[in-house]
Hints:
The protein is an alpha/beta fold. The chain has a single domain, classed as Metallo-dependent phosphatases (Purple Acid Phosphatase, chain A, domain 2, 4-Layer Sandwich). It is built from seven helices and 14 strands. The strands form three sheets. A six-stranded mixed β-sheet has the order 1-14-2-3-4-5, with helices on one face. A six-stranded mixed β-sheet has the order 6-7-8-9-13-12. It has a two-stranded antiparallel sheet with strand order 10-11. Helix 7 links the parallel strand 8 and strand 9. Helix 3 runs parallel beside helix 5. The longest helix has 25 residues. The model has no long low-confidence stretch (mean pLDDT 92).
Amino acid sequence: MKYFLIIVAALCVITLVNILLESHRENRKISFSSYRIKDKRLKKNAKIVMISDLHNACYGEKNSELLHAVETISPDLILVAGDVIVGKTGLSVDTGVDFLNSLGESFPVFVGKGNHEMRTSIYEKYGDMWETLYERTKDKVHWLINDSIYLADYNMTIYGLDMKPEYYRRFKKLYMDSAYLEEELRKPDKRSYNILIGHDPDYFEEYAAWGADLCVSGHVHGGLIIIPHLGGLISPMIKFFPKYYKGVYNIGDSHMIVSAGMGLHTLKIRVNNEPDLVTINLVK
């Protein structure tokens, strides 16, 4: 029995060391996902880069490597699906500010709030984190905070949802009334192609019922550890094997693309789950 426990302990240590080494490797590598969606309402094709959950991560000095990767893709526009920063007291927002401003100098950029931007904007303990992030970037990027913008060249409307804190509750998904999204965003016009920046993918059913043709989400960080045939292991909501963790999902004619994110916070573990820079090709 004694030797058995020693062997088990040794295997646990070896496994933990391997996870940490693999996380160290993956957290410094950029992977690329690409998706193609067709819709007859589009006036012309659109190449979109979608970025989620930067969480102050840096790829090279001032994110030069990540910016170069985006420039190489040469998108028509960029969607940022929330959590550019880490919402913890005492942390700087400079990395997020510099990154958004650099993107905005070269591309049209549309940004939605994640739960980290949401919490810093409503709780006093975070001081001026949100105000600093917003004020220092608002002239370079379009913040969509329960707001929308119509892009006539594409016949496309982009919405950004600033979801209330109770919907980010841990351990279980809070019921969302069908009227909530209409109250926050109004009902979408189905004559245009409607994209929703909705940070939390758990509410895909509600987004689709509201009228989103395409949702872009993050939040789940790919489940940290992706287990083949089983999916992501755990979400920030402390849910094991979340239904939506990475990739493209469909409900009827509605699509949702979930990024595994570019950065992490608190548990900086990635296994079989490299940081995820997403390209979406919308085809008329």
